[in-house]
Amino acid sequence: MARGHRNDAALDDVSREATKARARQRRRGPWRVVFWLALVVLVGSLSVLGYLIYTYWNGQRAYDDIVEVAFEEPADPRAATLADFQVDWDALRAINPEVVAWVYIPGTPINYPVAHKPGDDQYYLKHNFANSTTGEFGAEYGCVMLSGENNGDFTDEVNIIYGHNMRNGSMFAFFNQMKDNEVFNEHRTVYLLTPEGNYLLKSFALDHVPGSSTDIVIPNFETPEELTAYVQDRIAQSIVTPLPPAPAAADITKVFAFSTCDGANNKNRYITFCYVDEFLPLSVAQAAPGFAPEVSGDDVAAANDASAERVS
């Protein structure tokens, strides 16, 4: 009998342990589901982050490759003349025949080709210079582009150039940093190189405006006085002070503006406005290789007329 009682007790112990195990299993079940769900979310988030990082890397690499084949930066850009800047336009046209310029600011990441699709300011928001796109997800570099309302040969009085404000500091993100007065004055020189000739631009204002503004993109005016009023308004709204001061508004007869989103909610823009400090026509550079005469702002209009005739 004693042995039977011991066996019954052992069975009872086994039963109790099995009951406890089943209870633990039931309690553990929901947490196990939560764990696996959390693991799936973590893996998915890391995959998304990895893809986003890849699109940033791949987007900039595509432009770095273009720089390698088409643009040669002078050894000392700050001491270079306009004739020292060389762009392989044939190589660029082989990639994208809609290329119209190259924009470069020494000491910054801004070093990109500029494309232009007449009448269209949307295509190059989501297509890079090689006409590739990341689709609906990923870091979309797009392409630096001349406004579709402008002429592709830069013969307009006001030429607007757009670029994305990328979170890794590439494309036109540096223009956002120019809201700091010291940064603005340290980087007032902008080189715009075109098939018709090379421009050395100097910034004179930085405006922070709503993206819906309709009084900025005005390629041409009916009278010189209207252009002067436009320039004066840009100076009046500037959030920085150029040092040394810019020329008088009436002396600025051609404007280049570089526009990008402010990054906060993409509803506003920072626009850096520049005047032409020098211009080297293509015909002069070809006639005297290595020689870079300076063309004053007063002669820019005549030079542009000559350029327009060459490309018409």
From TrEMBL:
InterPro entries: Sortase_dom-sf, SrtB. The keyword Membrane applies. The chain crosses the membrane at residues 33-57. Keywords: Membrane, Transmembrane, Transmembrane helix. The keyword Metal-binding does not apply. This is Class B sortase. It comes from Adlercreutzia faecimuris.
